[in-house]
Amino acid sequence: MEERQFFDEMLDESGGARAPYRDLAKWLEGKNPAELKKKSREAEVIFRRLGITFAVYGTSEATERLIPFDIMPRIISASEWRRLSAGIDQRVKALNAFLHDIYHRQEIIRAGRVPADLVIQNEAFLPEMIGFTPPAKVYAHIIGTDIVRVGANEFYVLEDNTRTPSGVSYMLENRETMMRLFPELFRTHRVAPVEHYPDLLKETLKSVAPDGVDDPTICVLTPGIFNSAYFEHAFLADTMGAELVEGRDLYVEGGKVWMRTTRTPQQVHVIYRRIDDAFLDPLTFRPESMLGVPGLFDAYRAGNVTICNAPGTGIADDKAIYAYVPDIIEFYTGQKPILNNVPTWNCAKEDDLKYVLDHLAEVVVKEVHGSGGYGMLIGPTSSKRELAEFRKRLEANPKNYIAQPTLSLSTCPTHSSSGVAPRHVDLRPYVLVGDKVRITPGGLTRVALKKGSLVVNSSQGGGTKDTWVLED
């Protein structure tokens, strides 16, 4: 086996299978490589037939690509999951309390726990949201919390995705594909179900409908078919029994939002939006936007429609704010964080910038507002030329970057061209916040399919796995 300097989630130091993986290890002993290759090809056919693709931006071809899927499951024990879910629950409640506070009394700023300029001057902070309280005081209803593991009991939150996190459709399709390919494995493992996520999403969205609305009309607002996550938008609308709409399908009249239909217009009460803040309403935000709905924000502030996630939630997953999340958790919950942050240097600080520039070949540098693995530098795997170019970017605009140590991400068994081998992984559990917090057991495991790679994003050559949380 490869890369034993990293924590191997399947094998212990002596080469024996750890408890959660023992049944899988026995099953693997009886499988020949040809059979696994055949199953991998079958999975690819299934995904191709379903049209599970994503777009890669910034490339010359910018084409749709098939999401690479690995047929080896990632397994998490019940006790490990209890700790993870408790930490996630604590974190999402604190982030929602933070969002309510910064758009109201700003007590955390008054207390000196978070710098004022980091909030007020942040491009993700929306002054238009000041003084407005959404239903149930929930701002971030759908959250993807990225978690990495570096040891037996060492889990870290890498980032919080509170705007429009994607990937949940892959989690659901991964499970369905695995159940079709390997039904015998589900007979020998008590795997917590994930297929009820669309029902939980619908319950969550219904629970934050405007006051007095018992049977809300819900729609999913998409930018359209050219968006990289359009498959997911359509998938979730279909599985929830909600309408999939574009901005042109909606209009505002009498302070309410209406959906055009083949019959009479229908009032919309909850919008699960998958477009960015700036494009939501050309009358309030970017006037040239053709994706949003004129007047939508006024209808929202009037309490006649709920937007999920709320405009202005992006500041809670800003990478500069991330360094303060442990303080945010303590401030609003009175508790220490259950899940730790990754140590972070804020390049806007002179001392932090100096350290990063002196150790550029050792750290990972990320754009404050970046996502998807774009605009980042992984020092240990970068060439001298790449390091020199990134150094210039850092020096020219240090406020745009944070840096973190290069983590020794754990590995999981992964099917490769040479057989089953360890590859680095992370985890994105999906959290729903409404009348209560609902966490789907497991989430989406992303895997770096290239040997030695630490970048798991599909846009950068990564793939996905089915994630199994074992029940007691």
Automatic annotation (TrEMBL):
Pfam family, one: CP_ATPgrasp_2
Entry-linked SUPFAM superfamilies: Glutathione synthetase ATP-binding domain-like
Stretches assigned to the Circularly permuted ATP-grasp type domain: 73-448
Alphabetized InterPro entries for the sequence: ATP-dep_Glu-Cys_Ligase-2 (IPR051680), CP_ATPgrasp_2 (IPR025841), UCP005522 (IPR016450)
PANTHER family reported for this sequence: BLR5612 PROTEIN, SLL1039 PROTEIN
Annotated protein name in UniProt: Circularly permuted type 2 ATP-grasp protein
Native source organism of the sequence: Stappia sediminis
